Amino acid sequence: MISDLYLIRDSGCGKMRVYGFRIFQWGKGEGAGKIPLYVAAVPAGFLAAKAEIARRTKDRKKGYQRELSPTRLGKGVYGVTGYLLNQMGIFPTSILVNIRKSEGEVKFEKIEQLNDNIEIGYINIPDNVRWYVLDGQHRLEGLKAAMREYSEFEKYPVIITLTNEDEFYEVLTFYIVNDRAKSVPTDLAYRLLQRMLLEIQAPKWVERVLITGAAYRKAVAANVVDYLNYKPNSPFRGKIREVGEPPKPEHIIKDAVLIRYVAEIMKEKTFEGLYDEELADLLIDYWGAIAEIYPKCFERPKDYMLLSTIGISSFSKLFPTIYAYCARDGDVSRRNMKKYLSYLLEKVEEQDLKDLNVKLDVDFRRPIDERWWHKVDGPGIIHGTGEGHYKRIAENFAKKIAIVIAKKRKSK
After folding, report:
1. Which residues are within 8 A (CB) of 111 and not within 5 positions of it... i.e. 6 or more apart?
2. How do residues 402-411 score in pLDDT, each as one tens digit?
């Protein structure tokens, strides 16, 4: 007899039986095939006891879930707990979970065949496996909060869709379900793309459809930023806060900011064919030169704007220009990069502009020194926002360097 919301425990065999459906869905992408999905209802208290959330942290890089949102869990109008305790409280969509094949095999006892792809029967699940939640962690946590106030919620029937696939399938499905719905935070999305890029067992359609164009650049950029964070000669070594990592005093920047602008650099044809470590080494020298010119900005980043988005963006946009000068010299070294970047420290006089018949924004005629980047003492232009604004700053940097080069040539 089926009891307790269609759940039967069979402790003698070390398994549980759930009454439900097995359905098969599929796609035609290369490497894709039919995947069985098991649909059933289980008590919320039971699911809460079995559920596992694979959140990403610095030490758990295979995690893929984002952190819980306190707003979504609250008792207010838009909180899950408030919805259960004070409103309609129904969840007609299922919670998506996976039981990894490496931990146990789900078996199905067919009772009736409805058609070629839908069956009714018993879902047999090993008793000691974890149920990894791919979608629905906030609903589940909201139910747990409701249970603490009203024990009756332990019997709340939760619709589940269950799969029995490998760990990579979890990451892939989580990305598709959440990114296509625009609900994965950008920093986490970068890391999910990185993991899919590095997964050698990924189906061919993943590479052809998901890891292309901008997505490919972001995935490789995540690798580059990891090199920036771990290579001994990097000015960012140990100072980049990875997604899922709690803030520490030594952190000066989030990984997502750097990943975003490294991916932008990779749009340039000059860099698109480089290996990730090759590009990382170039950027280590580039930012190392910047750190040598502006040491206080790296020592006390909160007092300066250079390591905020405006500085990272503008200097990233300037990088191809500096690289081009160095490549023309046949000397793409930190020392040579520093030479050209140091031209930003020079003062450009009005007469210089007249002699060269060029114009330069007044804020860039003065030395672009540490004072220029200071949050209090710097010009108002460093507090602007938006990619268009950052691009104009980079263009003015490039123009000033060109003016100083021309001035030096003229004086010889």
Report:
1. 119, 120, 121, 122
2. 999 998 887 7
